[in-house]
Design goal:
167 residues, mainly alpha, 8 helices, disordered N terminus
C-alpha cells in the first residue's frame, strides 16, 4: 500500500496578526506596488482565471510544503506535486461542490466548459476540465480580493481530501 505524501498540508488556524493579515492581501499589495488598476474578475475568460488560479494554488501548495521542513528541492517537489495534479484538483472540487455558493458553482462550470487544447496523459479529459474549473475559481477569488474565502475553500478541500483514501 502506497503511503500518502501529504495528508493535510494546511496548518491549523491561529489568530491572525497584523502581519498575517497583510500577507493575506498579496494581490492588493502587488497591485499597489506596481500601480495596476483594480480588476473585475468576472470580466475575464475562464482560462485567464484558471491561468491565475494555477499560480495562486501552486503558491499555496509550495508555501505549505516548505513550511513543513527544510529539505532537498526534489523532495519538496515530490510532496507538492500530488496536490498540484489535475486529478487531485478534480477530486478536491468534487468534494467541495456542496459547500460552494451558487456564484462559485457558476465559475467552476464556466471553467469546466472552457475549450482547452492540450490535456495531459496523467488524467482523463473529465478530470482536466474539473481541474480547470477549480483553478478558475481560485483565480476568481484571488483577483476579487476574496482571500479569506479562497483560504477557507482550499483548507476545507485539503481536509476532505485527507479523509478519503482516493489519493
Amino acid at each position: 500500500m502506497e503511503e500518502k505524501i501529504i495528508e493535510n498540508p494546511m496548518p491549523e488556524k491561529t489568530d491572525k496578526t497584523s502581519a498575517d493579515h497583510k500577507n493575506s492581501r498579496l494581490y492588493e499589495e502587488i497591485r499597489d506596488s506596481f500601480g495596476l488598476k483594480a480588476l473585475d474578475a468576472g470580466m475575464y475568460s475562464p482560462l485567464a482565471l484558471a491561468y491565475m488560479g494555477d499560480c495562486v494554488y501552486e503558491l499555496l501548495i509550495r508555501t505549505c510544503v516548505v513550511s513543513e521542513a527544510n529539505m532537498q528541492v526534489n523532495k519538496l517537489n515530490k510532496r507538492g506535486s500530488e496536490l498540484a495534479m489535475a486529478k487531485t484538483q478534480a477530486l478536491v472540487v468534487e468534494l467541495l461542490e456542496k459547500e460552494l455558493t451558487e456564484e462559485e458553482r457558476r465559475i467552476v462550470q464556466r471553467g469546466k466548459n472552457a475549450k482547452v487544447v492540450n490535456i495531459p496523459k496523467s488524467c482523463t479529459p473529465h478530470e482536466y476540465h474539473l481541474a480547470t474549473g477549480f483553478e478558475s475559481l481560485i483565480g476568481f477569488l484571488y483577483l476579487n480580493g476574496q482571500s479569506d474565502r479562497l483560504m477557507e475553500l482550499v483548507a476545507r478541500g485539503w481536509q476532505l481530501l485527507a479523509e478519503t483514501d482516493r489519493i
